[in-house]
Structures are given as C-alpha cells and as structure tokens.
Design a protein that fits this description.
Largest sheet of chain B: 7 strands, antiparallel
Strand content of chain A: 25-35%
CATH class of one domain in chain B: Mainly Beta
Largest interface: A-B, 39 and 48 residues
Shape of chain A: elongated
Strand order of the largest sheet of chain B: 7-6-5-11-10-9-8
CATH topology of the largest domain in chain A: PH-domain like
CATH architecture of the largest domain in chain A: Roll
Strand content of chain B: 25-35%
Number of strands of chain A: 8
Shape of chain B: flat
Distance between the termini of chain B: 58 Å
Radius of gyration of chain B: 28 Å
Radius of gyration of chain A: 21 Å
Structural class of chain A: alpha+beta
Number of domains of chain A: 2
CATH topology of one domain in chain B: PH-domain like
Oligomer: heterodimer
CATH architecture of one domain in chain B: Roll
Order of helices and strands of chain A: EEHHEEEEHEEH
Number of helices of chain A: 4
Number of strands of chain B: 21
Number of helices of chain B: 14
Structural class of chain B: alpha+beta
Largest sheet of chain A: 4 strands, antiparallel
Chain lengths: 170, 504
C-alpha cells in the first residue's frame, strides 16, 4: 500500500538493548503477591472468625488463590521479557506494557525533566524508576525496575545531555 | 508603561451591582417562601438587611482587592501584586507569554471594561502560569494585548480577516450534540424551578393531565419532540451569543479570534506556537456537510479556569469547503486537500464491529438477565434494544473504519479518525516530540498497531489507530527522519526526506 521498499509484515520495532534488573521480577512478584495476598488473608481471617458464614468467605478466598497464584508465578517472568530499555545519543527507547505492549521513543533534544523515584518496595529490592518527561502532557517515558545505581547514573547522563540542548523543547 | 498601575476602580461598582443581582435572584424565591409561611413584612425584615450586608460586604472586599492589586509591564517581565490577606507577587517572563485573551461580560461592557488574561501556557501548576487583570478599561486591555504580543519581527504582513461570520452558519447550530442536551436540561430546569415554589407535583400532574387517554408511546414521542424543539431553539440562542461578530484575523505573528454578542471574547494565539489544526466534524455537522476548525497550539491550557474547548476554536461549524479554506489559510498550505490518506486494513473494521456488537450484546444481556430475575418487561426491552442498536452500532463501526486514514505531506502529518466525532488533524512534523507504538495481543495477531505522535500542543498526543503495523512504522520513520530508524528491523532503506513518502 505504500511506496516504502519493505514488503508487508517485514517492518518491526526491535527490542531495546537492555533488560531491566533481574530483581524486578522479585519486585513485581511481591507487588502482585500483596495485591492478591491481602484480600486472601482478610477473607480467610473473616472465614475463621465468623463460623456461620465460613463458606461465604472461604470460597472467594479460594477463588482469589486460584486466580492469584498462577498470575504471581507467571506474570513477572513474562513482564521481565517485555520490559526493556535503551538510551542512545539521540533518543530514549523503551518497551513496556502488559496486555498492551507499548514502545516509546523520546528524542534527547526534546527531554525536559528527568526524575528518579524509589518506592518503599523498590528500595527493598535496590531498584529505582526513571521518568523522562517531554513538553507533551502525554509523552513521559518511564523505565521501571532499574538497579538504583544504574538509575542514578542514567539520570545524571540524561540531565547532562539535555542541559546541553538549547531551546525550550517544544 | 513602567510604573505600577492599578485596575479600574469602577470594579467596586461592578461588584456591588453583581451582589445586588445575586441578592435579588436568591432573595425573591426565598422571600416568597417566607412570605407564604409568615407575612411579607417579616420576609422583608429578614431579607433586606441580609441583601444590604451582602452588597456592602462584596463592595468592601472588592475595594480592598482593588487597592491591593497592582500590575506593571517591566522590561522583560509582567508583574502582578495581589492578595487581600496574604500578599502575592507573580512575575511572567515576557518572551514566555503565549496568549492574551480579552473577555467582557455584559456587566463589564456596560462600563467599558474588560478582563485580560495573560497566559504562558505552562502545563504544570494550573493558575500559576497566568495573570488575570480584572477589570481594566477596554482601551488599556487592547494596548496591553498589542504590546505583549508584539514581537520584534514585522515580517509577517497583516493579512486582515481570514474568516468572518456568515449568519447562514446558524443552520448548523441545531444539529450539534448540544441541542438535545439543552432540551433535556430545560425540562430539568422547569422541574427545579417548580420545586422551589413547591409546585413540582402540580406541574407533573398538569402535564400528565394533558396526555390523559393518549397512548404512552405517543406521550413519549411528543415529549421528546418538545425537548428537541426547545433544545434546538436554545442551541440557536447560544450560537448567536457565542459567535455573533465572529472574525478570525491574522495580525503580524498572531491569530486572533473575536466573537460574542453579550459577552465579547478575544483570543490571540501566537503563530509560532501553532503546531497544526484539527478539522472536527461532529456527526450532525458531518451529515450536514460542515466542519469546525480547532487550533493545535502549545500554551493553550486545557482544563479548568474557563478554558472550554471553544477556547481553541478558530472557526465555528461552517460548510466543509470554508473550513478547509480557513485551515489552509491558517497553515499556509492545504494539507487536508493535498495529502492523500492511506486507508487502514479490514482487520481494523472487524475490530470495530466486534467492539460495537459486543457492546450491544452486553446491554442486551444485562437487560435479559434483569428480565429473567426481576421483571418480564425487561426481556422485551432486551430484544427491542438489540434490534434497534445492532444496525446503529454496526453502521457506526463501519463508518469509523471508513474514516480511518493517515498521510504525510511536506510539513504535516495528517491523521483522521472517529465516527461520532470525526477529527482530522494536521500536525506539524517538526512539532512531533516523540512516538508511542501500542499493540494489544489482538492487534499483534491482526498485524495492526496504534501509532501515537506526542506533541507539546493541543491534546498532547494524536493517534493513528489500528493502521497496519508496516504502515504505522513507515509513517513514523518518514515523518520524523532519523528518530525511529535505529530501532527498526530491518534497517529501513534511506527514505527521501523531502516529503516524497506518499500513499498510493
């Protein structure tokens, strides 16, 4: 349909070069385990404390466990394969997403701010998240699950590069 | 103009009048209520002092605000000092100023006053990025506008009016989505007012009495027709108030929209901030062969602070040819006519059909479930809604797919989407500051991808939904040469960068 030289089905985005830190698997797993574990524990506790309604609490608890355990085991590994990042001299490039995969590219010359965040769980795993924003309200590029030293280094490098670029990046 | 200047002192009178108006509009229903319970004397005894207090208090606060508010145009800066209790000092850098809007509601106009809003359009910290001078004399407002937007370059000649109002455009007002909305809210308004006077049930009885002996379906049809008629009239009135005296001018380096019958508004957009335009065709307007033109510009803050969508409208709904002509005049080239659009694959249509029919099935299923569990009449509602909604949903889905398209001109990326609100955006290629490619599992299987161009202007991101994956990536690679190439497999052949990428 187009005059580009490639044939149909040929063109695709290659995966970014760097995987996230392997500890991100543990971090995601913990997050998911909390997400499913807290309701599970609450339901089980209620079921044990209120004998007349035991079935009404334990059945949903079982359901949460049946859904949760495979997800907790499988999803983080899958996400680890999906989440990748790369920083070249010209651009920041990431692949992320769960059921909707997302590739984001932000050119170095348009970067406005570089933030590093570390939530409590991330700190336990020695991880950090780097967020790169551009002048677009919707153009932020987020790199999750980096080793915190790598993240700091990356943020410094990006800040130095963008400071060297003149203009207001719009 | 370097010294500190004050706002116009008549603002105190305006505030007093405003408070008097509030007192009357709130006091009369309350007064009637009290008078009914006791006597007129008691009502007046209660309400008159309250009203006097309100007017005096409002004027006093406004007087203090007037005394404490000072602004000045310093070299390179606009400064505003304000604050009744906590004094605040705000300073805008002159070269960051993107918009200067002038509005005047009828009350201000009666005094020859205007409100000036000076914006830098920074996305962060809503409210921090603008200075509002309310009110100043109209002439002062105009000279502020001129001075703040005047740049050193006089190269762009004043073209004069790009568009002026054609009163015949009013025929598109009743087909907007606003009309039924206004009709429904008119009913709501009547019931609300009746409630204030305790007449709500009486009004309902009276209306039902009118339809005694008439089948329910006819009653409903009549009520809907009345709502639509009222809504259409209201939409006409609103259109006149909003768009009367409309004109779009190009002044050196600035686009200026002026409009309004009672409340006059003037919006100025710096052309160097313009990243493109959007041709918007809501369904009703599209069927009538009309379209609206919106600016895609940085520094037009979206969100609160009175920034409704019509804030960035360059041309109200007008015949499509006019809209295209104005868009071309604004951009300096006609991308909507010159760029052929590549259609999106059939898989995009299947996806839309699946979603549309899935939605109808969900509605029908919920109704049917209710029919089984609650009331049998819902079963009928289920099949009726299915019969009515399936063709509508299918038609919208097919139309949505037909609307999808993208193309690349020399300076602009053109993308079209939508059915109920069809929008064709022409986005400056130089204004694209990043790409997002999105693919769900289903899209991957169907070879589709959604390409999103992020930009500092307008909505922040403009999507090319469900293009074939190849087309999307080729488009992105060609639109901003060099940005995506290192990440593509196989490395693309060097694409001519002079805009030779065209759809066949």
């Amino acid at each position: 349909m187009t005059t580009t030289t490639t044939r149909r089905g040929d063109l695709r985005l290659r995966p970014p070069r760097n995987p996230v830190d392997p500890r991100a698997v543990g971090w995601w797993r913990t997050t998911l385990a909390l997400l499913f574990g807290v309701p599970f524990a609450a339901l089980v506790a209620l079921g044990l404390l209120i004998p007349p309604a035991r079935a009404w609490f334990l059945l949903p608890a079982a359901l949460v466990a049946v859904v949760g355990v495979p997800l907790v085991l499988a999803l983080p590994r899958w996400w680890y394969r999906v989440h990748r990042w790369e920083v070249t001299d010209a651009a920041v490039y990431t692949r992320s997403g769960y059921f909707w995969q997302e590739w984001r590219v932000a050119p170095m010359s348009r970067i406005q701010t570089v933030d590093t965040q570390r939530g409590p769980l991330e700190q336990r795993f020695g991880l950090a998240t780097v967020t790169v924003t551009t002048a677009s309200a919707k153009g932020a590029v987020k790199i999750e699950g980096l080793d915190h030293r790598v993240a700091t280094e990356l943020a410094e490098r990006l800040t130095a590069t963008t400071r060297a670029t003149p203009g207001d990046a719009t | 103009m370097t010294g500190w200047a004050a706002l116009d002192r008549r603002t105190v009178v305006v505030a007093a009048l405003l408070m008097a108006g509030v007192s009357i509009s709130a006091g009369v229903p309350t007064g009637i209520g009290i008078a009914q319970a006791t006597s007129i004397g008691t009502a007046l005894l209660w309400l008159l002092p309250a009203a006097a207090l309100l007017v005096a208090g409002g004027s006093a606060v406004e007087y203090v605000r007037w005394r404490r508010t000072r602004y000045r145009l310093a070299p390179g800066r606009v400064e505003l000092r304000t604050g009744v209790l906590v004094s605040r000092h705000r300073s805008l850098q002159r070269d960051r100023i993107r918009t200067v809007d002038i509005t005047a509601d009828p009350l201000l106009r009666a005094f020859g006053l205007v409100t000036v809003r000076i914006g830098t359009g920074e996305q962060s910290g809503a409210g921090e990025a603008s200075v509002v001078l309310r009110p100043v004399r109209a002439a002062v407002g105009e000279s502020l506008r001129r001075e703040l937007l005047a740049r050193a370059d006089g190269r762009v000649a004043a073209d004069g009016a790009l568009a002026t109002l054609d009163p015949r455009w009013i025929r598109y007002a009743p087909v907007s989505f606003l009309a039924p909305l206004l009709g429904v809210s008119a009913f709501g308004g009547v019931l609300q007012v009746a409630k204030w006077f305790g007449l709500q049930s009486e009004v309902i009885d009276r209306v039902l009495g009118l339809f005694r002996g008439v089948p329910l379906a006819v009653t409903l049809a009549v009520l809907v027709a009345v709502a639509l008629a009222v809504g259409a009239v209201a939409a006409l009135g609103l259109w006149v108030e909003m768009w009367w005296n409309y004109r779009l001018d190009r002044e050196p380096g600035t686009l200026r929209v002026r409009r309004g019958l009672f409340t006059t508004r003037s919006t100025s957009i710096e052309e160097s901030r313009l990243r493109g335009v959007e041709l918007v065709e809501p369904l009703g307007a599209r069927l009538a062969g009309a379209a609206r033109v919106d600016a895609v510009a940085t520094g037009i803050t979206t969100g609160k602070d009175g920034d409704k969508p019509d804030h960035r409208t360059l041309l109200p709904v007008a015949p499509r040819a006019t809209a295209r002509r104005v868009a071309a005049a604004v951009l300096g080239e006609p991308p909507f006519d010159a760029v052929p659009l590549t259609r999106h694959p059939a898989a995009a249509r299947s996806k839309r059909l699946r979603w549309a029919l899935g939605g109808v099935a969900t509605v029908a299923a919920v109704l049917a479930l209710g029919g089984v569990l609650v009331a049998e009449v819902l079963l009928h509602a289920a099949w009726v809604s299915a019969v009515v909604l399936v063709p509508i949903a299918a038609a919208l889905a097919v139309d949505a797919h037909r609307g999808l398209g993208h193309g690349l001109g020399e300076r602009y990326l053109v993308a079209r989407r939508g059915s109920v609100r069809r929008a064709t955006v022409a986005l400056q290629r130089a204004g694209i500051i990043g790409w997002t490619v999105r693919q769900s599992i289903f899209q991957r299987r169907a070879g589709l991808a959604t390409l999103v161009a992020t930009t500092a202007a307008g909505a922040g991101a403009y999507a090319v939904p469900d293009a074939s994956c190849d087309d999307a990536l080729a488009l992105a690679a060609a639109a901003v040469p060099g940005l995506l190439d290192p990440f593509l497999e196989p490395p693309p052949a060097p694409v001519p960068t002079n805009g030779a990428f065209v759809a066949t």
